[in-house]
């Protein structure tokens, strides 16, 4: 059964270590388990992506109330 994984993080094209590390993690997971479904619940400014097993949803801002959009976009995942 495929694993549904959500990362709450900054993401590319943002230039920061956390965004880059998240990208490295995603590439590593897909090598080990290519069937996993991965979603990045990203800070606004990330490039939105919607592919079959990979999605980037830029939906929160660290200077605003970010809890609600993060919870909304992580429902249905196995691991956050």
Describe the structure.
It is globular, with a radius of gyration of 12 Å. By secondary structure, the protein is of the alpha/beta class. The chain has one domain (4-74). The chain contains 2 helices and 4 strands. A hairpin with a 3-residue loop joins strand 3 and strand 4. The mean pLDDT is 96. The longest helix is centred in the N-terminal third of the chain and has 16 residues, at 17-32. The two termini are 17 Å apart. It has a 4-stranded mixed sheet with strand order 1-2-4-3, with helices on both faces.
Topology (SSEs and partners):
Layout: E1 4-9, H1 17-32, E2 37-43, E3 49-50, E4 54-60, H2 67-74
Parallel strand pairs: 1-2, 2-4
Antiparallel strand pairs: 3-4
- In the predicted model, the low-confidence regions spanning at least 5 consecutive residues are none
The secondary-structure class comes to: alpha/beta
Count of separate structural domains: 1
Indicate the proportion of strand residues: 25-35%
Main beta sheet: 4 strands, mixed
Based on Cα principal axes, name the global outline. Answer: globular
Strand order of the largest sheet: 1-2-4-3
The sequence of SSEs as H and E is EHEEEH
Count of individual helical segments: 2
Ends distance: 17 Å
Number of strands: 4
Helix content: 25-40%
Mean pLDDT: 96
Radius of gyration: 12 Å
Structural descriptors:
4 strands; 80 residues; alpha/beta; Glycosyltransferase subfamily 4-like N-terminal domain-containing protein; four-stranded mixed beta sheet
């Amino acid at each position: 059964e495929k694993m549904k994984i959500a990362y709450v993080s900054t993401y590319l094209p943002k230039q920061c270590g956390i965004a880059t590390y998240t990208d490295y993690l995603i590439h590593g997971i897909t090598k080990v388990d290519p069937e996993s479904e991965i979603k990045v619940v990203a800070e606004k400014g990330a490039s939105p992506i919607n592919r079959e097993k990979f999605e980037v949803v830029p939906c929160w801002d660290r200077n605003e109330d970010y809890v609600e959009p993060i919870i909304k976009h992580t429902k249905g995942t196995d691991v956050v």
